[in-house]
Amino acid sequence: MLKKKNLKLFSPAGNSAGATSTVDPDTISPETGKPWSKALVWRFLIAFIIYGILNNAAFTLNGAVLLPQHIKDVGIGNPTAAYGVITSVTSLVSLFVGYIWGTLSDRTRSRFGKRTPWIFIGSFVAGIGLYSLGIFESTTSLTMAYIFNTLGQNAIQTPMYAFLADRATKNVRGTLSAGFGATSVGAPVGQFISSYFLGQSYQSMGFVVGGIMIAASGLIVLAMTPREKSSKEAVVPKNESVLDVMSTLLPPSLKGGHDFYKACVGRFLVMTSYTMIFQYLIYILEDHLGLSVLAAARAMNTLSLFTLVVSMIGLFISGPLSDRLRARKIPVAFGGLLMIAGAISMLLFKSVNGVIGYVVLAGLGYGIYLAVDMALNIDVIPDEAKEKKTTGKYVGFGNLTNTAGQMLAPAATSIIVTATGSYNLVFTGSIMVTLVGIAFILWIKHVK
Q1: How do residues 23-47 score in pLDDT, each as one tens digit?
Q2: Buried (b) or exposed (e) across 281-312, using 16+ Cβ within 10 A?
């Protein structure tokens, strides 16, 4: 029976199970050296689900829907190109910041742990940055506001993902990864909320809502999960030179990390292909299909409901099934194939029904993919890195490839649409990129 002290809200993680030498090593927590109780798994899972939904709903509401419309409303010339510049420059900053924050969190010493201080401060910074998108009216100022948001967002995201490697037992990582995968549910939630602000006189209030949501996403996890163990006594080299500190920011070694880099490349390509279409849905509805702003808002409302349902199906099935089968690659690859089917729907049907086909198929695939993606990327981290407790660096680098995909996708879509005046080549490019990404994931050798 679980001891009462393990149910205390802010107590350190762990339970009093018997000797670890008689149990499966996959059921042992790296943090405590003991198995996790079911109650503890549920606490983390629910917290991660709330994080995933709130965080991505806020990003979708402010960044993917209200920001592009705000750019049009304030009269910035060529809004498609301006949006591409804002998101690409911000993603370029995020490309490095997430990796740096992850590496520095490995070396953080505090009584609150090495990840918690980053998540706490980052929550407030991210909220202020996302809210500020509704204040400014030039490409430069909007870019700076988005950069401020991404500084905080990466301070939440990378250290929180490192919780899987630092604290979670291997046999539940797929299930907990599905909690993070709730970001795919957050996207339609953000779309749904946006439909009540888009094109209205109080549209700017949506930016306030988004700022509060992204700040709450990090703070709620810290409130719900057991307190992280103190890192105040962690061994950190003293009297280091500047070069010594800078050397820790070098990319992870390729030696022993081939599977890790294959997973990173696959992740980069799949994320690029999905973002190329999804992040431009509002423009696809208005410019590709010719809908008015209000008609596009109504369509986004419908699309969000479809995406919400299929994403939840993908998450609830894929993560736990991955743990039961102890398989990561096949669910990720299958999710990619469904994304391809969604892009084909966009090519075949130039109508709202074609877009519905996309959000149903690609939304289901993205849910299946996200449910297992983080577990796969944790499982391919070399054992040496886990022993040296530098998992934050690897998680940060993995997120770097994820962010690189988000950075390249808007720029690629913007260039293609500007050059051709059509989105058809965008849909075709998304299909090809996904196929190559799946090939890299299936190439991984030491993870099933």
Answers
A1: 677 788 777 778 888 888 899 999 9
A2: bbbbbbbbbebeeeebbbbbbbbbebbbbbbb
Match 């991404």 to its residue by tokens. Answer: 150
Compute the distance between CA of residue 361 and CA of residue 402 in angstroms, rounded to an integer. 21
What residue type is 79 in one-letter code?
P
Token pair recorded at residue 52:
């995933």
CA-based nearest residue to 191, from 353, 91, 311: 311
Per this entry, what is the length of the chain?
A: 448
Model pLDDT, residue 127: 94
| Lookup: tokens for 215 | 């700040």
Q: Contact, 156 vs 58, CB < 8 A?
A: no
Q: What φ, ψ does residue 35 adopt, rounded to 5°? A: -65, 160
Kindly list the distances between the CA atom of residue 237 and the CA atoms of 30, 231, 233, in Å, as whole numbers in the listed order: 22, 14, 12
DSSP states of 240-257: --HHHHHHTTSPPPSTT-
Whether 361 contacts 351, CB under 8 Å: no
Q: Which residues contact 8 (CB under 8 A, 6 or more apart)?
A: none
* 65: three-class secondary structure by DSSP: helix
Give the three-class secondary structure for 28. strand
Helix, strand, coil percentages (3-state) for the chain, rounded to 5, are: 75, 0, 25
The phi, psi pair for 177, rounded to 5°, reads -60, -35
List pLDDT tens digits, range 413-432: 888 888 888 888 889 888 99
